């Protein structure tokens, strides 16, 4: 079955190529990456829940967190020392 995941931080066609290549190497088929829609999505053929978890893991390992992932809170300000 085709599983679609909503992904953060896709900004260009290079991101789509990186994701397609990573999922192809991991053995996924029918990979489709949509960077034009909002939210951005990645779809691929999965076999079972373990395969779905592998897909999520591959995306995260390549720097593309899922919308379902918790976003760490940022401080109100960041102080830099450039001396």
The major sheet is characterized as: 3 strands, antiparallel
Rough outline: elongated
Number of E strands:
3
Unreliable residue stretches: none
N-to-C span: 56 Å
CATH top level label: Alpha Beta
- DSSP summary: helix tally: 2
> At CATH's second level, what is the architecture?
2-Layer Sandwich
Taking all residues together, what is the mean pLDDT?
90
Write the layout of secondary structure elements.
Layout: E1 2-7, H1 13-25, E2 29-34, E3 40-45, H2 49-61
Antiparallel strand pairs: 1-3, 2-3
Architecture overview:
The chain is 31% helix and 22% strand. The protein has 83 residues and is α+β, with helices and mostly antiparallel strands. Strands 1-3-2 form a 3-stranded antiparallel sheet, covered by helices on one side. The mean pLDDT is 90.
Please outline what is shown here.
31% of the residues lie in helices and 22% in strands. It has helices spanning 13-25, 49-61; strands at residues 2-7, 29-34, 40-45.
